[in-house]
Every structure is written in C-alpha cells, then in structure tokens.
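Archive record:
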Amino acid sequence: MSSNSNHLPCASKIIRVGDEIAGPRCIYNNASRIAVTAFPMRELANVVFPAGPAVYVLQNHDSVYLGETLSAETRLIKHLLDPAKSFAREALVVTAWPDPWPNKLPVLFLQHRLFEVAQAAGLMNVVNKQTPTLPVVPEDERGTLERYFRDARQAIFDAGCRTFDSAFESQYRTILSATDNEEDLMGAEGAMQIDVPLHPPAGGEYELRYCGLWARGWPEADGSFVVMPGAEFRSAINASAHKIVTTRRKELKRVGALEEIPGSGRERLLVGVRFASSSIAGKVVTGAHVPSSVWVPRPHAQPILVMM
C-alpha cells in the first residue's frame, strides 16, 4: 500500500447478498455516515433499500445518469418503465447510514457535486437533461456536506463504479475541447445532405457509444460524417444542446427522414444523412452536447471472407 497520503487508513466493508460476484452488495465504512447499495438493474426486485433520501447513479459501459429521490425503490421502479433510462444496466444508491437523513439537502448537494465531477472527469457520457442545481447550504453545514461527498465518492469507487475516478483513460469520451466547440461554430452552417448514396469504406465504419443507442456511420475525406439508415436518435433534447440539434431534427422530420419508434423514447433515421462533422452528427443523434469521440471505430467492421 502507498504511504503517500494525508489520510489515515480506512476499511470499506462489502456485504454481498447471494453468490453472484456482480450481484447486489452494500458498501459502508464505520468511520462514515455513507452507505452505497449497488446492484444490476435486473435484480431490482430483490434489493432491500435503506430508508430515507438518496442520490443514485444509473450506468452502463459508457453512459451515466445521476438522480435524487426521497424513495429509491419507488423511483427506480419508475425508471424501469422509462425508455430514456433503458440503457442502465447497473444502479448505485447512496444513502445515509445507519440512520436516514432528515431532509433532501444532503442528496441535492451530492447530486450536484457528483455531476460536476462526472462532467470534469470525462470518463462517461452524462445523459442528464438538466444540470442539477446547487442548493442553498447553511454555512455551518457546508463542511459536513463536503465530508459526505468525499465519503460517497470513495464508497462509489469501492462499489466498482468508474464514472468519477479511474486509473484508465476513457475509451469512449473525452472532455469537450476547443476543437469540438469550434466545429459547432464553424461547421453549424454547413449543409446537411439527406438521402445520400451509401458507400461505407471497408473496415472504416464507426458506431455510436451513448445511452445504448444504435447508430453507425463513417467519416468522409472532407471532414463530414455520414450517418447510416436505421440509426436511433434519442427523442429528448437536453437543455444544454446546441441549437443546431433542434433545427436539423426539424428538417429531417419535415422531409420524412425521421420517424418515431413508438414507446421507446427514440426515433429512427430512414435514409443516409451527411452532416458537416462527426461532432455535429453526434449532437443531432444524441440530443446532447457531446464531443465527436462518441463515435468509435467498430471492432470488426471489415468484410468477412467465407471460403467454400
């Protein structure tokens, strides 16, 4: 163990329910007021939640949603029926331990602070439609809430979540750079071409990594990006999304190139569309202010030769 730390050693305890390694588990520390309950979403019916207000994390391998609630069980059951949350494969619920918090101030504070860290880390795509607001915090409670935040961040990491801290760089996402912002400003006026010929380069296809959406395409030599028919667009548009998302979506719907997938919270692209850049393509498809790195090379996009 490294001794290069100003903190005393501490031990996180993991209580497992059942035999599955990735199954439900509770993480807590005797020196902390925080507990984290982590579990696969498919195991929700088998999880017993601590009482009281909670902040929670929904995630898959590349996307994350941060929420808060007075009742974790009730809220997560609703999310199971919400198409916009169907990407989630695992949930982590942060509560007070052993006694519940008397009000929502701690979880509102935690949601805001964790959202900030997730955005800054750039390890996952944060899919919240709205930025959580920082509640008014009495001066004499600020130190306590910051301690809750540090303990929650540690316990979430110990539970296996790498949204906020990781020894690895992101495979799918980078922090928004000046290049992406410039693409928005300079490429936004570039023409969108609808129903373009489809000639994907052998071995050069890209796929979208965001919220479980299915979308594929490829970059062109001039910097443009073609999105293939069948791509799924997230119906919701984040408040922080660039205005080009709304204008391009309206145009696609006007010409009948985008249709709703009933009950899914998604829309399907019916023809090939060329966008001015991969950054703009990603924003229009996801409805979010994402960088171009949401498009990643397909691992096995090359043709398969079958010898008879």
User: Anything to note?
Assistant: Confidence is low (pLDDT under 50) at residues 174-179, 182-187.
